[in-house]
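Tutorial handout. Part one gives the primary structure; part two gives the three-dimensional structure as tokens.
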Amino acid sequence: MLQELLDDGPTNDGYYFFEDEDLELSEEEIQNHIWNLGVWAENIDDTQDELRILFPNLEIYELNTGDY
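Part two.
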């Protein structure tokens, strides 16, 4: 969604309007959000890998059941 904002281009004042949150963001802010989300996704992947070492039969969706 953030990449789409960049692809659509800025408004006349140079900001990108994010309608879902009623926000105007600069290109730098959007790039920072994209970078942070990438780091977050990497951390999740790393954590899943570590959990699978401890629990080889783990299915990630099972974490929401409270069984682990």
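Part three, for discussion. The helical segments are 2-8, 27-54. Residues 35 and 56 are 30 Å apart (CA to CA).
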